[in-house]
Design goal:
By secondary structure, the chain is mostly helical. It has one domain: Glycosyltransferase. Helix content is 50%, strand content 1%. It has a two-stranded antiparallel ribbon with strand order 1-2. The protein is globular and about 50 Å long. The two termini are 33 Å apart.
């Protein structure tokens, strides 16, 4: 599908607002009845997810998607206010965290399966870097929520994961435009970086830094410079990659660009606000519909929801009300959401975890996404 191109001159003007005004009503004005339905939707989804946990602590999916899928499932529970070791899901969370820790490989990579020598779609050579990022985010987010003994267990795991992330970022790039970003652990095509992989690694760095780990500023600065280069000024959106054939602006990448810069405090820049306006022109009104060749519905909803929450009230309320209605209308009776056609290999645990996370930004529970 071809993305709709909107010239900058046609973008909706959005004035800069003070932070306290932006956050005066973080929960979109859905009405009490609709908010109640949203909360019920999340609880039904979590109840379904809990039934998908395997005896080893993982959640049902293709092995190539582990431990990213398990990490996203656990983040969904955390985003709803559930804590490791406490409440109805406490033991389940503990078990899942142990599975994620156990996936770390000797080089620091957090991946259940080792990447093969050549890149093939939906194999570990493709998915390993995503597994690493989302597992790193989970472990950094729960660090400090758990006992001192468990923190001691996570400490070297996170430190080794950070070292792996930096080593991947520091790889020699064939084109200087790709400096500062990340791509797959195996070389692929003409591009050595893309915004999808880079934004996930940048979130890991931000989460680890927030948890008190040593993350030098230049690691983040180099990544942010890459994100800025992905911005297409004429269209007001973020592209998937700089080098290669995928120069379109999928919603997932526009959300990823906004979120990456917003987490660095760049909420009020013209670049970020233009991208926010672009997203308002491409709402999530049709379940499963994608925008651009590399877009994914649930992945996009996850990124865009947290991105628009970071931008604040005027963006957030317009965006979230429409997304929430679409998700609530599309949830299956058992509580899950069906997977995207492209990502169906990872099953409904993946799509359901992303849907729950997309519904949860206003709860302000996960430290990394707090504004």
């Amino acid at each position: 599908m071809i993305a709709l191109i909107i010239p900058t001159s046609l973008m909706l003007p959005v004035p800069c607002l003070a932070a306290e005004e932006l956050l005066s009503n973080p929960k979109a004005d859905l009405g009490s009845a609709q908010m109640g339905k949203t909360e019920d939707s999340i609880e039904r989804a979590l109840a379904w997810l809990a039934l998908q946990q395997e005896s080893d602590g993982s959640f049902r999916t293709d092995d190539a998607g582990e431990p990213a899928v398990t990490s996203l499932c656990l983040l969904a529970f955390l985003a709803a206010g559930h804590l490791p070791g406490e409440g109805p899901y406490g033991k389940m969370l503990d078990k899942g965290i142990s599975f994620v820790v156990g996936c770390q490989r000797p080089d620091g990579l957090l991946a259940l399966l080792p990447p093969g020598p050549d890149l093939k779609t939906f194999t570990p050579s493709h998915t390993a870097i995503y597994n690493h990022a989302f597992a790193g985010i989970l472990l950094s987010e729960v660090y400090g929520m758990i006992s001192e003994d468990r923190n001691s267990e996570l400490l070297p795991t996170i430190e080794q994961a950070l070292a792996f992330t930096r080593a991947q970022q520091s790889k020699s790039k064939r084109n200087r435009l790709d400096h500062g970003g990340w791509r797959y652990v195996r070389q692929h095509g003409d591009s050595d970086t893309d915004l999808s992989v880079t934004s996930s690694q940048l979130m890991f760095l931000r989460s680890a830094k927030g948890a008190g780990f040593n993350v030098p500023a230049d690691w983040i600065d180099e990544a942010l410079d890459y994100v800025k280069r992905c911005f297409k000024e004429q269209e007001g959106c973020f592209r998937y990659e700089l080098i290669g054939s995928y120069s379109d602006c999928p919603r997932a990448m526009v959300g990823a660009g906004i979120l990456s810069l917003s987490l660095a405090g760049m909420h009020d820049t013209p670049m970020v606000q233009s991208a926010g306006n672009w997203l308002l022109q491409h709402p999530f009104d049709d379940y499963g519909k994608t925008v651009g060749k590399t877009d994914r519905f649930h992945y996009g909803a996850f990124y865009c929801s947290f991105a628009m929450f970071q931008l604040g009230k005027q963006y957030w309320e317009s965006f979230y009300a429409r997304l929430a209605r679409t998700l609530l209308e599309s949830q299956l009776d058992e509580g899950q959401w069906p997977p995207d056609s492209v990502d169906k290999i990872f099953g409904s645990t993946f799509s359901t975890a992303l849907a729950v996370l997309a519904l949860s930004p206003a709860q302000q529970v996960l430290p990394i996404f707090q504004r």
